[in-house]
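User: Quick sanity check before I run a bigger batch. Here is a single chain. Can you write out its predicted 3D structure?
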Amino acid sequence: MKVKPLSDRVLVKPLEEMEMKKGGIIIPDTAKERPMQGEIIEVGPGRTEDSKKIDMEVKKGDKVLYGKYSGTEVTIDDVEYLIMRESDILAILA
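Assistant: Done. Predicted structure follows.
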């Protein structure tokens, strides 16, 4: 299924966290924290402000850092994604 976010929203696939810590302890899924890094899968067209279109600063394929509780979780074709506003993104990872 193809999803195209509206306005200044983006579709992000969270990056998986490492399951094993330095000491060799494996953390169960229920105790893991929500990841705060992801890859942009789709971007909306941008927002309109005072009758002027403002383009998105992020693009498809960017790796980003976002707030811990940002976005709305959605499942599309059995894959977990987040839909969030561009303003919820804190940084683009280089």
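The chain has one domain: 9-16+34-93.

User: Great, the batch can go ahead then.
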